[in-house]
Write the structure tokens for this entry.
Amino acid sequence: MLALPCYACRHLGDTMPEVKSIFREVLPKQGQLSMEDVPTMVLCKPKLLPLKSVTLEKLEKMHMEAQEAVKQQELAMKEQPQ
Amino acid sequence: MEVTMDPLFLAWSYLRRRKLQQCSDICSKILQDSPYDQAAWSLKTRALTEMVYVDEVEVDQEGIAEMMLDESSIAQVARPGTSLRLPGTSQGGGPTPAVRPMTQSGRPITGFVRPNTQSGRPGTMEQAIKTPRTASTARPVTSASGRFIRLGTASMLTNPDGPFINLSRLNLAKYSKKPNMSRTLFEFIFHHENDVKNALDLAAQATEHAQFKDWWWKVQLGKCYYRLGLYREAEKQFRSALNHQEVVDTFLYLAKVYQRLDQPITALNLFKQGLDHFPGEVTLLTGIARIHEEMNNISSATEYYKDVLKQDNTHVEAIACIGSNHFYTDQPEIALRFYRRLLQMGVYNCQLYNNLGLCCFYAQQYDMTLSSFERALTLANNDEEQADVWYNIGHVGVGIGDLTLAYQCFKLALAFNNDHAEAYNNLAVLELRKGRIEQSKAFLQTAASLAPHMYEPHFNLSILSEKIGDLQSSYTAAQKSEDAFPEHVDTQQLLKQLRQHFAVL
């Protein structure tokens, strides 16, 4: 475990020299700083939704309407014999 | 005394005001009184055509049969940069899958969707059959049995007196000689009845009557051939039409043929040739940009979209594509400006508010984020859109560290769309944080089977398996991840580690 230099304390020390900091600055003079790169799970990215072209919207609308019309027709056909 | 307007004039006026049903009703009345009134007949065909008219340049639906049993391809494996069918060959240095999500077919998602970009071209038969089940719209078996037939039959069903024109009894030879009626009749047969064979007959006879000098009929013949899948014949007709008269539409149709034949470079040259005759034509510039985008060359696509905006600064497609490109190249605040521009122009739908919400969040405008998403939710038309919005709100939850919110959002996304692979993957990551390994693994496996083109579930599964000591499954999952995203550094490192392990054993 590495102790990081406390920037906040040093800053305080600059402006108010008479106050003695209770934290001691630790700067490693020897040895290597190393960090292990552990692979972590990845999230899927946020998805911008593509806008629809006018043609596509019209096609989809027409398709919905056509399906509705067929459904209505079938319902009417079913009701007729009764 | 009430003065009545001449019914034919009234019908004509209705047509111009796009009150098509009223126009058609009046024409029917006129035709009941005098069945041989050609003007009323022609007007009615026009009204009925207008009701179902869609721009033929935009319409393009490829069925499974056309895709898999393709006779026009020359080589099985095309050279890089010459084919639209190899989504992996990126030369433009666009964003990698690590930052930009993929569509079902393994292309980076774009800012705009048209009928022919809906699902791209899957690589294998298995994928082709599987895709419709997970996509929001089903892919038809062939394009001939697609949407058009269904629309055509529906239009016949809704008419209680049977079809307006009985095509089998129509004397096409007679009509082809009347230039003032043949054109409206052709459009009626082609667009309203979707009877391409009869339309082709009529066009062939009419072009003969015009002594092969009329470019309009040649273009129509080309359209029919295209619908029938005879691309080389269509190409001939369009080329011949261009010799008579250069029209922007013909360039677009011809380029469409080349795109279907998988010759993007020819299509690009054609567009450039068109631009020589029609400098600054927006549709041609858009065509070029689309091809670059489909070939994964995002940066030059963006250049062309910028050219489009110089000519027409309200072009929705260009604004949306540039916006999404900025978002995925880490400039959400610029993307936000583009989407805001769309909002100012009056685009008002679920997708736009969702994008605005995401851009606001990543551009640190937190006050607008949730209200945009709320709007998006209220404007959503179907469950798939709802699911996508909840999925993105989940990301906001992850971003602010509210993992409970994120968890609930991803769950909601799954409640609306049970095939949402991304939500499964993210849920798995959250489950693992809670220490529920089995649950996490199950979610990852579901995600991997739903979306084999994404690398994330494979990679996560690989890490998870490695942690619990199942090195063999870890290795297979890592290999799948490498297939989906070969440049991913973490996957490569993991594979290297695993190979070392196996070597030691």
